[in-house]
Amino acid sequence: MTTDANLYKLDGWALVLGASSGFGEACSLALARAGMNIIGVHLDRRAGMAHVEEIKTKIKAEGREALFFNVNAADETKRNETLDEVKRTLDARGEKVRVLLHSLAFGTLKPYWSGEDPNVINKANLDMTLDVMAHSLVYWTQDTLRRGLFASSSRIYGMTSAGNTQVWTGYGAVSAAKVALESHLRQLAYELAPHGITANAIEAGVTDTPALHKIPGSDGMKEQARARNPHKRLTTVEDVAQCIVALSVPATAWMTGNVIRIDGGEKIAG
Questions:
Q1: CB of 200 closer than 8 Å to CB of 254
Q2: Which of 40, 64, 82, 251 could disulfide-pair with 32, CB 3.0 to 4.6 Å?
Q3: Considering the domain boundaries, does residue 210 fall inside one?
Q4: Residue 108 falls inside a structural domain
């Protein structure tokens, strides 16, 4: 049987939301190594910009281009300004976005009720968490489509977690966002299938990222995950990035609408 080598090659651009740390950083670097240029959207203060420059330098060292924007990805005006600039750059070269990765980890970690403690979650907290960690994927996808920036056989990914079904202290709003994100991805998978665009949720195992450190009791979560995982270690951002590279090749065009676990068997061993 003849194999078309192009079915297993990557090119074009990856648009990574949350590109300066955690899964977004690792995927940006892995996709660059695999042949893709990177559009990175991130929100960092001045102290974090040195690390962003390091990421861009690593991408360029792979012979790829790094077009980065330090903006609030949940801001409608900033989103449109960013995509307008992306369109000008890519149209001038006749190039397209082939991967969109949503890896935004910014939400409220407050309990729904805590006795007499007034510091419980409120409407603004819930609205913000769902908007940033779930709904923003829909808006970025819509505005990328409106500009004709997606290539045929493009891939859309959103980062979910085992918190989509498990209960952790303070994780209620983020859990709700993860479930909403998965629902959005299923709907996008259905509606964008005629355009050749796939959409899948990526459920990573417990991973030692900056976002994890903010969750109350995260040290205990890591300890339990190590004990439960058949490999007796945590998932790493590199584990996830390598799998996303593999899933992004043209040959996987029939895989869509899924929640794909990348956890070394952590969840099945639970």
A1: no
A2: 64
A3: yes
A4: yes
